[in-house]
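Researcher: Next entry in the queue.
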Amino acid sequence: MTLSLIRNRLLAAVTVALVFAAPGAFADDDHESNEAWRLFVADHTNPVVHAIDFETGEELGRYDVKGAAALTASASGQTVFATQSDDDIVHILKTGINFSDHGEHRDLEVSDVELLPVTFEGKRPFHVVPHDDHAILFYDRGGKADIIDEATLLEGKAEVKTIGTTKPHHGVAVTMGRHVLVSVPNTEIVTKPDELPPRIGLRVIDETGAQVGEMATCTDLHGEATSARLVAFGCKEGVLIARPGGTEGPKLEMLSYPSDLPKGYTGTLLGGKAMQFFLGNFGEDKVVLIDPDSDEHFKLVELPTRRVDFVLDPATPRNAYILTEDGDLHVLDIIKGEIGRKATVTEPYSKDGHWRDPRPRLAVADGHIAITDPRHSLVRIFDADSLAEVRTIAVEGQPFSIVAVGGSGASH
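Model: Structure for this entry, 412 residues:
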């Protein structure tokens, strides 16, 4: 696949970074450079979330919740959603990291971590999609999705707009301007009492909740990501792309899998931030780079063993990190579309067994990769350039889900 568009976007991103890194960018005597990073780690089994200072490894707080939680950071990084699907509740943590934009620089304010008094309850909350100043919480068995305003959350209150999802199903909802993209279940199929119907497509609804246009087919829709102004969804037929369409609503386009790809499909997606692209799984032992604006949309990358987790590096846009079940961490060069480096970082963690068994998860913080190692009650920290382990952070129990929040800014 020709990745010229991605390459051009990367060069532009680097140029912007160099401009802001130029000497004198923070020459004002009222400004002092500051940096802060925090890790949030949830236990695999116990109902607890740990907040950890990344630099020192010090635990900033231990927060009891109701059940085992999956963690999702908001787009701003000011909040982390702790979703407890088996216990029908979501808790919210204030990270204490707040950036405010001032044109030529951004300010950083650091405060205490806090478990906010607001919770959200409903039948099997699952996917949380952060976007701009809000997040969308989808309830698989509740037949609804909540659009949650983050600024109100930080005040200890809840401002929520609820949309219907036709019928309970394992789905997702994503905002795009004034419209919402919502997965569509098969309402005609008869399911057993404990089963949810399969997904068959995606629909667009407006501010009134009315559907705009026809449903786009997307069999077994699973996985979504945003990159630039595009949203992608994984389907059996290909990857469905939603583009902004003005007052008429988003435009939906299916990027069909080419015939030369092996049998498989994408069900997990990540979206580039500094440049427009998507990275998705393709079965268990392959990934695909997806460029919606290229003549050839898909670039297949084969892995030596099955993938355990993968993550993009927001500060180094051309890097993605992929952990495979043999315990190796691979660096995927987005521009070249190939694996460049690898190192052994954990013991093997087999993908056999239950899909929810405790296995490592990845996060990126300040030029490092943080990897949970639930078997040894550790978070392992690796240098992103050398892939050498630089230190470990002991976390009681089985550290599992992890997110990193932070960055640098000016303080006054």
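Model: Residues 4-20 form the longest helix (17 residues).
Researcher: Noted, moving on.
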